[in-house]
Amino acid sequence: MIKLRFIFHIFFYFLCPRKRLIEEDIDHYKEVTGFSGNYIGVMCKLFVDRPEFRSVFYYRLGRVHGLVNILKFLVPPISTLYIYTPSIGGGLFIQHGFATIICAKSIGRHCHINQQVTIGYKGSLAPVLGDNVTVTCGAKILGGVKVEDNVVIGANAVVVKDVPANTIVAGVPAYIIRKNGEKVYEKL
Length: 188
Prior knowledge:
The chain has about 190 residues and is an alpha/beta fold.
């Protein structure tokens, strides 16, 4: 019965040229939440339980014949999550999306973004995030910085300089606290 509510969503899912990206997003949500089942079943459960997923789904659909607004009316996205990034790889997971702005030049695959995060412009420059990047609650990534692969941005960190791969950064301004699994203290 619940699937009837989402019949138009399922229809657009099958027609969407970014269907594979949506499936990668669902796979990441399944990994984090422990949901199991086929894509349609899990997608319907995510529509019910995770308004952040709805926002990601609508982002993936783009502006399909202007009908996305009808879908948003039937099942509204989270109202305080803004996604304005032209290119986001598959496997995007947004946890709690409250007061979150995602406005990067590009974001890689399998990224995890928490609540109250700002990823945005400084002047005319926007950040680039690599693959497997986790941005924890309250973090800010500003300007034309490059965050390489396998990076964790700690809670409330402010990143205004490039971040090398395989690191964990924290603080204001952000500095490296772990590099390749080893505890360190290095400025960016």
